[in-house]
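Lab notes, practical 5.
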Amino acid sequence: MPARRHSALLFTQALSRTGTSQQTVVDDLRRVILDGAVPPGTPIPVSEVAEAFGVSTIPIRESLKTLTGEGLVTHQRNVGYTVAQLTAGELAEMYLVRETLESAALAAAVERATAADHAHLDEVNRLLEQAVRDDDPQTYHRQSRHFHLGLARPARMQRLLHMLESAWNVTEPVQLMVHVTRSDRALLHDDHRRMLEAFRAGDVETLLATTAEHNKRLNHVVTSLPTGNGLVVDDAGS
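Output from the prediction step:
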């Protein structure tokens, strides 16, 4: 079976098809992409997706236009829709955007965090630790997102948080934590532990310094990601 046909089937098989409203279609397509169920560059067969949902191609195309605007899907004339594939430089840029937005929220988040916010982060950190023990990179990647957004959300800065989640979504198809080495994952997790300790202690200075160290380590991982595995493309070939 040709690779393009195989990836198209993979995409349609990953859909949950729990409903047929426009919002349901958008949400399900977005979920498949953000969950890493289909890698960057995967074709999105409009007619087959429409058949899977039991709708015409019109709401599928409208949904894909929405996801294109979110940076999750790309469209090329005579090629069609595919899961967006970033260049190495674009991926590094989006991680810088994430870092900047998160750091801007942290001081306010520490000040405004409630006991429930602390409890949520404790639970996420417990799940991260379990993923490390189980050597489960998929779960670790998913919970790492919850951890970072959990640090920022207590700031209650809704516009900033929306931009942060949008930036995070753009990088999500790469599933970075799934592809880093086990030793790098352990180092990043130790950063998480120290960040949580500073957050709970209300120590903004230490939290920001530790977060900066974490992002420096993370950016090194991002720039070291091979371009030959299809996750990102070389900037020279973009």
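Observations recorded by the TA: The beta strands are 43-44, 73-76, 80-83. The domain at 88-224 is CATH 1.20.120.530 (Four Helix Bundle (Hemerythrin (Met), subunit A)).
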